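Readers of this paper often ask what the protein records in our data store actually look like. Below, we set out a record of this kind in full and without editing:
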Amino acid sequence: MGLLLAYFYEQDQDAGRYAYYGVMGLRHRGYRVSYAVLTSEGFKTGEADPWGDFDLPSGYAVAAAVAPAAKLATVKANGLRAVAAVDGGCPAARLAELALEGRGEEAAEAIAGWEEYSPCAAVVLRSDGVYVAGRGREPRRPLSLGGYGFEALYAASETAPVTLMGGSPRYDIKAGEAVYGDRFTFDRVRVGGVRRTSLMEYVYVARPDSIVDGVNVYEFRREMGRRLARRHEAEVDVAAGVPETAIPYAIGYAEEKGARLEYGFTSTVGRVRTAVAPMSFEERLMTLSLKLNPVPGVFKGKSVAIVDDSVVTGLTLKVVIQRLRRAYGAREVHVAVSSPKIVGTCPYRLQEFNPETLIARHLDDEVITRALDADSLAWLPLREAVEYLRRFGVEPCTLCMGGEG
């Protein structure tokens, strides 16, 4: 899920016009956006497809959630209405209820300090103009704070949407911290905690032009590509990222290997996670063809390293390798996976994996290599990613990769 809050201090400003670009910057996180736009007369709410043709109503504040099935929790009491979006599987309706008490401090204290909100991040907006944004004591999801000069406050799940709204990222909300206020005030609650941001944020979910908890996502991925190349005992002529999200890894891999980095594939459908997208097997195969169409001449007669950002079912790699061998003349195809093995689902519902289809959960490397029809296979060791992130004060959650939560 992706969270967004755009709050202008003057009611004649149109936050919806700016939040539109913020939603565009979060649409890689889901197929639906649920929004609440606050005007001087109350809320305007709705849902839309962020990948399609959509608009946000005019208003001076916007709260939005982008997810596979995004929903904002709405509660009414004492003539007020509150909407809440929570990332991480925590009770959003309860948080909206708390937001109706006091002037937001109760909801802020719950996010920052209550055990039931420990793994989550949240944004809340109230009909009288009170806002709340915060993270639990051991948050698995990030939340960044920014602004548009002195005119607006922004909060988003990563920094790129803040920039796309014309703002400047200023602050990563810490573990066990929440900010709250209205058009005239700004306060914070700080309990303290440990940043347990999911490793999947850095490996796959976040945009490469974002900074997450002080970590430059692009630099992280490029460095992981270098480290993976050092471990991969394969002689390759060219390297290509599969899909486009793997290109930063492929850059680092090619640099370390001394191989030529190639633009190997063109996508017609943009960024679609075929392993978890709601579609039939036939639709999945067709989408893969549209998503990863090889560039002629790049692979013919070459020993190729296909650098993937993560592997769930292995279907993408199987289809790609078969096409490179049979239709595009690759001499050898080596697979370099730039994430640790995904072997379990996420108890915090941050990633929806079916444990029955996780290839690394059920098969060893030798069998996977044969099943993919690859010449070799290498994975990024979990310790490499964890060690890198610890330098920034992040103790990443790695439960889905067989590590610690």
Summary: The longest helix spans residues 217-231.
